[in-house]
Specification:
It is a single chain. By secondary structure, the chain is an alpha/beta fold. It has one domain: Ribonuclease Z/Hydroxyacylglutathione hydrolase-like (Metallo-beta-lactamase, Chain A, 4-Layer Sandwich). Helices cover 23% and strands 28% of the residues. The chain contains six helices and 14 strands. Helix 4 packs across helix 5 and helix 5 crosses helix 6. The longest helix has 14 residues. The protein is globular and about 55 Å long. The structure holds zinc ion (2 copies). The site of one zinc ion has 6 residues, from loops.
């Protein structure tokens, strides 16, 4: 398949009695023309990549929506990629890693890395040095022939967390990911005519709000998908508190009648 998306993590930041252990924290693998791109990089993502048949060494692009710990276990991924060069048969892509971060987070990243590797004075290793790319609202970069990554600021953490959502435009379809966000202009732009929209749905049925902390509920996700003309909607980051039927009925109540599912780890989208 020229374009595929695998849900590596549709879960949340905590273990609760309701949240199924089979739903790990956020991460989505997008493969286009053989290039592996990760949207969010949660704890233990390398295990889930391996389970999906993809060696972490071969992932060359990682876009992190925001720095909350359930989305951004980046030092662990960087270290695992480097150490696999030492201990495993190197893949030609093992030395390449381009990491996209919201601008403010890219600015502070060296402190995070230095905290983990003080013996290196903030440096990486001679054999391996990832590239950190700072994203502004409206950022775009060509990743491959007619494959463009676009990023838009979204509303999260009372509007004080520099958070972004993504849109990957390819010749085979558009994949959009809200990251963690409430309803805002950014999610509207990134969702436009997407073939697949992966939308944060961590607000419970009946508790939806605008402003505040910044998450969406199912009716808001449905409304977003309807107005953006989205073909397929994956709800993600939801708690297993409301039943799937009730959650999906909220999507329908918003008027969205495209394909909509509560995403589970291992779900695939292919074109
Ligand atoms: Zn968050
Ligand atoms: Zn989150």
């Amino acid at each position: 398949m020229p374009l595929s998306v695998v849900a590596l993590g549709t879960g949340v930041c905590a273990d609760t009695q309701q949240t199924k252990l089979s739903r790990q924290p956020p991460g989505f693998l997008i493969t286009v023309d053989g290039v592996h791109i990760l949207f969010d990089c949660s704890e233990g993502i390398r295990f889930r990549l391996r389970a999906a048949g993809v060696h972490p060494q071969s992932v060359t692009h990682v876009a992190v929506s925001h720095a909350h710990p359930d989305h951004a276990a980046l030092p662990q991924f960087i270290q695992s990629k480097f150490c696999s060069i030492l201990f495993d048969k190197p893949d030609p892509r093992a030395h390449q890693l381009r990491i996209y971060l919201p601008k403010m987070l890219a600015r502070d990243w060296p402190q995070v890395w230095n905290w983990h590797q003080p013996e290196n004075d903030g440096a990486y290793w001679n054999e391996f040095s990832p590239e950190i790319v700072a994203m502004d609202d409206g950022f775009e970069e060509t990743i491959g022939p007619h494959v463009v990554l676009k990023s838009f600021s979204v509303y999260h953490g009372y509007g004080r967390h520099p958070a972004m959502g993504f849109r990957l435009e390819t010749p085979y379809g558009v994949v959009a990911y809200t990251g963690d966000s409430g309803v805002c202009e950014g999610v509207r732009i990134l969702s436009q005519s997407a073939d697949l929209l992966i939308a944060d749905c961590s607000t419970r049925v009946g508790q939806e709000y605008t402003g505040g902390y910044g998450h969406m509920g199912p009716r808001q996700c449905g409304d977003l998908a309807l107005k953006a003309g989205v073909k397929r909607l994956w709800l993600t980051h939801y708690f297993d508190v409301d039943t799937p039927d009730i959650i999906l009925s909220e999507v329908r109540a918003a008027g969205y009648f495209g394909e909509a599912t509560l995403a589970h780890d291992g779900d695939r989208f292919e074109t």
